[in-house]
Structures are given as C-alpha cells and as structure tokens.
Amino acid sequence: MTAENIVEVSGLRRVFTTKRSEVVAVDRLDLAVAPGEIFGFLGPNGAGKTTTLLILTTLLRPTTGTVKVAGIDVAAQPDRARRAIGVALQDAGLDPAATALELLTFQARLQGISGRAAKQRATELLEIVGLADAAQQRTRALSGGMRRRLDLASALVHRPTLLFLDEPTTGLDPASRRQVWAEVRRLNTEEGMTVFLTTQYLEEADELAHRVAIIDKGRLVASGSPDRLKAEVGTDVIHLEVSPEHAEKACEAVRELSDTREPGTDATGVSLYVSDGPSRIAETLRLLDRSSIPIGAITVSRPSLDDAFLLATGHRMEN
Ligand SMILES: Nc1ncnc2c1ncn2[C@@H]1O[C@H](COP(=O)(O)OP(=O)(O)OP(=O)(O)O)[C@@H](O)[C@H]1O
Description:
The protein has helices at about 50-55, 80-85, 100-110, 115-130, 145-155, 175-190, 200-210, 225-235, 245-255, 275-290, 305-315, and strands at about 5-15, 20-35, 40, 65-70, 70-75, 85-90, 160-165, 195-200, 210-215, 220-225, 235-240, 265, 270-275, 295-300. The two termini are about 35 Å apart. The strands form three sheets. A six-stranded mixed β-sheet has the order 6-7-8-3-9-10, sandwiched between helices. The chain has a four-stranded antiparallel β-sheet with strand order 2-1-4-5, covered by helices on one side. Helix 6 links the parallel strand 7 (about 160-165) and strand 8. The protein is built from eleven helices and 14 strands. The chain has about 325 residues and is of the alpha/beta class. It holds the Pfam family ABC_tran. Belongs to the ABC transporter superfamily. Drug exporter-1 (DrugE1) (TC 3.A.1.105) family.
C-alpha cells in the first residue's frame, strides 16, 4: 500500500460478542483504494460488508487493525474523517412528509450551511442527481430509484471527495438500478469522486467497479479488476445441469476435460473450466453418456464474477 491511497485498511478485525457466541464479522482484512476509483466490495449476505463500511465511516470501532480514509486515521480522528467523506447507508431514514428540497435543505443546515445558502446547495444537489423536477414532491411519493438518488444527494452536501454507498441498489427494479448506476458513474467521471460501494450483486460489481474485492465469511478471497478476476478463472466454463445426487459422479466422469482448473460442483450441477468450450461439448456428452449420468442442460459461457467467487471459495455466491 502506498501513501497515495484514499482508503487504506490494514489487518482489520471486528468481533461481535453476544451472550451465547462470538461472531468474527471481519477477519484480517487488507484493502487499498486509489483516488478516482469506483471500488466494489462484493460478497454474499453476512459476509462482513456492512460491518467494514461502518468501520470505514467511523460508525463502528474495529476490534483490531487500522483504517485510514483520505489519509486520516478514523479511530484517532473520527470528526476529521467524517468531514472528508460522504455516506449513504441502506434504509437511510427519509422523513416521508418532507419534500426532496426540504430534506436536502435540512441536511445542508446540519452541515453548518446557513439560511439561503442551504436552500441553494439543496437545489444544486437535486440538479446533480437529476431530481430537479421532483424538488417539491414528498419523499413518500418518490420511486425507489429516486429515493436512492436522494440518499446520494444527502451524502454529497459537504462536497466530499470520497463517497461510501452501502448496497445502493438492493431491492430496486432493473430500470431504477441502471439509473442509480448512471448517477454513480457520473459522480465518478464528472465530479471526480472516488466511490466505495458494497454490493451483493455480481452484475453491479462487474458493470460499475474499476476494481473489486470479494469477501466471504469476513475474509478477503480475491481482488482485482473484474476482467482480471474473470480471466484468472480460465477461458470458458461448461456447466452441466445435474441433480445433486449425480453431481459427484458426473464430476468424476468429466474431470479429465477440465484443463485450466479443477471442476467445481454446487447445487445446480458441475462446472468445468476449459480453454475452448464449444470444441469440448461432444466429448463431455460422450463421457457422461458412458457413465449413464442424466443431465438437464449443458451451457458454455465466458467466466463471470460468480465463477471467480466459486474458484476462490469453493461455493457459489448465487444459486
Ligand atoms: N451488531 C451485531 N451483533 C452481532 N453480530 C453481528 C452484528 N452485526 C453484524 N453481525 C454479524 O456479523 C456478520 C457480518 O455481518 P454484515 O452485516 O457485516 O454482513 P454483510 O456482508 O453486510 O451482509 P448483508 O449483505 O446481509 O448486509 C454476520 O454474521 C452478522 O450476523
């Protein structure tokens, strides 16, 4: 890690102790984000994404390890760190009776901007996130995608250069999701903002992030650009839809074909990693037939981040 990183996480560990048990939510995590990046922090439910984000944004203390944002140690100087960053959390409470303009004006006042200037900043922010036409609408009347964009605007009041977003599109329909992505991209390219976002959507990390860190059970399992992570998987993936009771036998039958990696099994069947998928299909079918293994379907695809996840963890993120 170098001094130029805008986010630096080193040896981060967070343990939650309850009466009955101890949960290690984040374990020996190291991360580095360069200025100007959109950084995707990807993992399944319960992987430790929100815990990490809460620590990065000063809202939770680490058990051990150090975290710096914009060069500031968040444990030593939380107030300074807070001034450097913007945060949009999941389910941020929006007052349903306030209008979009009132809400942002209130946020601006909370940041110490007075009277008329607060309203002016609120108006500017509505423009920035494409909600100028919705200024007088009550937040309860806004669509899911518009509410997320209002959350984004609230995080931008004090002109941070580093923006943290916790699962910005969870629960949104595909069209609203694309609108939020477009907004995040625009903030990154036009406003020069570095964005750190958590997500459980492979497609979101793949589409939006310049670099991705994959976390599972509190640990970092892979990191790099989506293209690099996919390239590391191998060239093509042949997926055989096989019922769970036949998966092991199918895997054994075709193991020799998997020439770039060991094959993997999961609830949906068997994945083979090969350098040239289409040319191996006939042989795959012949081997399965010889072992009398019934298959539902056979597909060939380019590797996805889900395959990268499978390779790193031995199980799929999505079923
Ligand atoms: N306050 C808490 N007390 C006890 N355990 C907690 C607490 N917060 C989180 N955990 C546990 O820590 C682990 C990581 O949770 P975390 O919310 O960080 O995961 P996540 O990746 O953000 O998941 P999600 O996508 O569901 O938000 C989980 O096992 C969770 O149950």
